[in-house]
Amino acid sequence: MNKDEALNKFTFMMEYRNLSSNTVHMYRWYLSRMFDFYQLEDVSILDVSMAQNYVVHMKQTYAPASLNAVISAIRYFFDVVLEAPLSRRQFPNILYDPVEITVFTDEQIHLLLDTKDVRLRAFLLLGLDAGLRVGEVARLKVSDIDSKNMLLYIRNSKRGKSRKVPLSNTLLKALREYWIVYKPDKNEYLFPAVQSNSKTPYINQSYINILFKEYIKNFSFYVPTMRFHNLRDTYATLMLKNGCNIFTLKKLLGHSSFSSTSRYIKYDISDLAQAPVLSSLMEIE
Questions:
Q1: Do 41 and 117 sit in the same domain of this protein?
Q2: Are 129 and 238 in contact (CB under 8 A)?
Q3: Are 137 and 154 within 8 A, CB to CB?
Q4: According to the model, what pLDDT value does residue 110 have?
Q5: Which residues of the chain have pLDDT under 70?
Q6: Are residues 190 and 271 in the same domain?
Q7: Which residues form the domain of 73?
Q8: Core-binding (CB) domain: which residues (predicted)?
Q9: What is the sign of the dihedral through the CA atoms of 171, 173, 177 and 182?
Q10: Closest by alpha carbon to 124, among 135, 116, 112?
Q11: 96 within domain boundaries
Q12: pLDDT at 168
């Protein structure tokens, strides 16, 4: 089985399982890089030792969390294409200390949202006020905004899961202000690709990450570890602090397991003494 045949079968099996388009794209890329690393003409000769050695090599350039995504892709490839499943004992994930959660304060939130860039403000509120992942922001369609029922639809997200989240008046207003300026097609993505030669019809999530990183560097509270996902961290932590139960939060965040959601309850209340309440977001005009 050559590289193209293997990748085509891998793609078919992922799409058959209804994995998100982003997962399909990334998993293909991870496997393609491994094939190129070994310069394989016949990928069926791959075995567990080759997979392990490749992961050891990739430790030089990949952070543990990203490396675990590579491991998941390889494990899935062995299962559905080579039909030689790898157990977690044979091919375990990399252990690491999770990235510290950053929760923005009330003052920091107001400073971040004090921008005349209507698109950037929409990005920020989708993270802060709806808890969306950066990829979910990028792939949001105009039709996913249900202003009648005040809901946002997040479709085919991580692991192919879909969900609904509440749409606040503040967020709806920000999206309408963005709409007036950018006028996206009603039948297409809310944030279309920036470049005409883009591989996707929607904005690249890396573009949003870079935009956020450059923006937040302007503030005195900036630290190098800050990232767009911290907006989602803030949303989740404050939702719990303000009475949302963990079962509801799990659904709102689109988590597959409670272990992912429970990381937000590992903080003492004293750590959040200066954190904003969600109602503060509603007061922003």
A1: no
A2: no
A3: no
A4: 95
A5: 98-99, 159, 266-285
A6: yes
A7: 3-80
A8: 1-82
A9: positive
A10: 112
A11: no
A12: 94
User: How many whole angstroms separate alpha carbon 164 and alpha carbon 47?
Assistant: 41
pTM of the predicted model as reported, rounded to 2 decimal places: 0.71
* Domain termination site, one of 39, 64, 80: 80
Number of domains, the chain: 2
User: Are residues 167 and 112 part of one domain?
Assistant: yes
pLDDT of residue 272: 44
Q: Which long-range contacts (CB under 8 A, 24 or more apart) does 139-142 make?
A: 139/21, 139/22, 139/189, 139/202, 140/189, 140/190, 140/191, 141/188, 141/189, 141/190, 142/184, 142/185, 142/186, 142/187, 142/188, 142/189, 142/190
Both structure tokens of 242: 């303000």
CB atoms within 10 A of CB 215: 17
String of DSSP letters for 122-139: HHHHHHHTT---HHHHHT
Q: What is the tens place of the pLDDT at every residue in 12-62?
A: 999 999 887 778 888 999 999 999 999 988 999 999 999 999 999 998 888
Both 205 and 129 in one domain: the answer is: yes
